[in-house]
Amino acid sequence: MKCETIYIALIGLVLAACNGDVFVDDYLPHGAATVLMSEDNRTAEITFTSDNWGIENIEGWTGEFKAYTSDGKETFLPLKEKELGVVHCKNEYVDFRIEKSSGNKLKVSYSENLYNQALDIGILTSNAYKMEDIRVRFAPTSKYRVDSVVYNWKQFYLFEYGMIDEMESIIVDNTLADAPTTITVYPYRNTRRELRFWPYSHGGNWEEEKYSLLFGDNLPAIVIPDIINQEKPVLGNTKIPFGIKQQYIAADVDKDKAVEVKIDAHDKRKVVVYNYLERYEVPLKVYASNPITGGKREFSAFLYSQSYINYLIFKEKMESEQYD
């Protein structure tokens, strides 16, 4: 990591009836460039020729921050003239520190900016005579990558088999015919597998934007369990993007499977196609890291899977009798 040192020319301000230790006028010359920081230059040091200034506020930052004295005790802004201390600003996507490490040095450093655009802030410095705003721009940093996924198999829950969902229905009116008729249905034509993530903590919201900021637009794919023989979860080759709350993938069924259904002469039936549900839920933890900044994250979630296996076809009579 490079450390950028910025020397700002200071012009002495002479004031009548004031002592010589006054705030320096125009220490940030008009039109001076913004302090530009990037992933390769995440530390900058600004040097003054006077020590009679303090940190008034951080403009453009709406998140939480904490201020500390030089001996680590929590304090509040502003940091007074000649007072040494640190301001630590952090939210889920940005982490930076502003430190008055000595009388004439201001150090700015940042760990990450996961927003998709640069973050601009102003460090407002002041004393009894003047205020100056030092503009700083934090460039976006690299996104996180998934290192591993751990499922809590002890809390894996497979819902009881036997529930059915209606997939489609067709009304066949053969009342005027003197001979039976046959139609072809495809019981898996509309079948698909539904996956859902939700927060491990009850009452939380799944924020898709959060994961796109952390991982980027191309969300990492993680392996999810499949069910073998309606009882055993296994990790095979099925993957889905981690971060999308609700998504659908192809079910492991034969979409082209055809079944012939016979309707008798002088009969009117509603042919209803059902699929048997195969459902489970399981808690998981996703461990991620940032190879450039060194940051580490851990995400806890539940995964719900709803797929279909086997089918059932009813021929529902359109008059008083319900089923064939």
Automatic annotation (TrEMBL):
It comes from the Bacteria. This is Uncharacterized protein.
